[in-house]
Amino acid sequence: MATIFKTLSTEDIVSSRTLLYEQIPITGTIVSGTYSSSAGGEQNILNYSHGMFQTVFDYPYLSSSANNLFDVTVGAGVGSLVHRNIATASFGTKKLNIYNQMAKVLYGYDLTGAINQFDKDGSSETSNDKTLNGFFMSFSRLLVKDEIKKGSFRLTLGLGGHASGSNLTGTISDVSGAFATPSYKTNSPAGEYGILFLSESAAGSRASYNSSQLNPAVGLIFYQAGIIFLNSDLFAAYSSVNNPTSSLSSNTNGQLTTATSFTSSDNITYTNVQSLLLTGSIRQCSEALRRRMLNVQFQNTTELNSTIYFLRINNNEFNYSANPTYLSASEIRVKGGNPLNAPVSYITTAGLYSADNELLAVAKLSQPLKKTEEQSMILRVRLDY
Predict the structure, then answer these.
(1) Largest CB tally within 10 Å, which of 144, 187, 246, 380?
(2) Bridge-based pairing state of the strands 227-231 and 133-139
(3) pLDDT value of residue 250
(4) Residue 247 pairs with which residues in a beta bridge?
């Protein structure tokens, strides 16, 4: 009688996990709005009526082949200059809401139920080194897949003033020479995250940067969420006096010796990043960051889970077929009319069944395998999901 079902033991089933990586390069020409219309508009940059963020596409966004690359926006937390001047700040309430929303999702709450604020070193439990102003880049799931590969993120920015923005550049990455073995944080509701470090490039001299810090922390990267948070101090000038209420350009945490100036597409000039955050719209703040991006690259990660089934076929199993055409006039066709010949079958398909014999998956062999009483074999079936 033909053997139809065979129960698999735990020794016949093995689970595995494979990580696949893909390099994602985004050039500065695309980010800065390379598809510009004759009227000066950036056809691959989408602005919304609510004015809370911009979306960057790889093609003009009205094209059916356009893909969303990432969103860019800005936020300010409780205690920031924007918050203290909320009545007069441009889009002040929206900037505050954006910061709180991002902080709530990415950083969670403290023991008192208050929203944790971003900080430089990832120690959300303490009140030290809080970052109250910053830019957000939220990459699309199409690019990130399951997560950004740790240690692969690179962002090159022009840090100089508007007239010479590309003359001073810096590279931001989640790996720093000063931190050869970075430790990735896990105290986030959104998964793992790491610290972003700034290193000056060949286009700038060490004298252009804050001399008290080497490879300073300037932001955070949330790998599974695909979100980048950049500290606004990245564009600020260092000063020994920290009194932002009386002087917008004073900031002890600034990374540059000369404050970066910005000129918007509306031809409005902001002398420093604090002035931009306070009086500029979210669109203008987003443009200020976006148009200084010279290059963005990282590797995404696709997690491929597999279950491997080893189908062990002994010599006395599956030598017959349950197919009705296997018999002709009560005789086995493959014996060639000689009843003394050993039974033969040809294996073409392996089926995986549930405990109540319901077919769940089918694996087709590349070619039929001849099976006789003198043979035993093992079929390896891999199920990916």
Answers:
(1) 144
(2) antiparallel
(3) 38
(4) none
Residues ≥6 apart with Cβ < 8 Å to 311:
6, 8, 12, 350, 378, 379, 380, 381
What are residue 251's DSSP bridge partners?
Answer: none
**What pairs with residue 383 in β-bridges?**
307
In whole angstroms, how far apart are CA 198 and each of 57, 172, 183, 249? Answer: 26, 5, 17, 20
pLDDT band, residue 300 (cuts 50/70/90): very high
3-state secondary structure of 350: strand
- Give residue 61's identity as a one-letter amino acid code: Y
Q: How far is CA 279 from CA 73, 90, 92, 272, in A?
A: 15, 5, 9, 11
The pair of structure tokens assigned to 47 is 């602005």
* Total residues found in the chain within this entry: 385
Give the distance, in angstroms, between the CA of residue 115 and the centroid of all CA atoms in the same chain. Answer: 23
Measured over the CA atoms of residue 85, residue 91, residue 97 and residue 98, the dihedral's sign is negative
d(CA 176, CA 198): 8
Query: What's the CA gap between 337 and 342, in Å, rounded?
Result: 11
The Cα 158–Cα 290 span in angstroms is 10
CA distance 150 to 256: 27
H-assigned helices in the chain = 28-31, 81-84, 92-107, 141-144, 273-279, 282-290
Q: How far apart are CA 273 and CA 280, in angstroms?
A: 10
pLDDT value of residue 252: 54
- Whose CA is closest to 51, among 80, 85, 92? 92
User: What token pair was written down for 176?
Assistant: 């720093």
Structural contact between residues 82 and 273, judged by C-beta atoms closer than 8 angstroms: no
Q: What distance in Å separates the CA atoms of residue 6 and residue 3, rounded to the nearest whole number? A: 8
Within 13 Å of residue 140, how many CA atoms lie on the same side as its CB? 15
pLDDT in tens, 265-294: 788 889 889 899 999 999 999 998 998 899
Identify the residue whose tokens are 């979306």: 55
Instruction: Identify the CA nearest to 234 among candidates 66, 120, 87.
Output: 120
Tens-digit pLDDT profile for residues 231-252: 998 888 876 544 443 344 334 5
For the entire predicted model, the pTM comes to 0.80
Measured distance CA(192)–CA(135) in Å, rounded: 19
Residue corresponding to tokens 């995404």:
300
Beta-bridge partner residues of 221: 194, 228
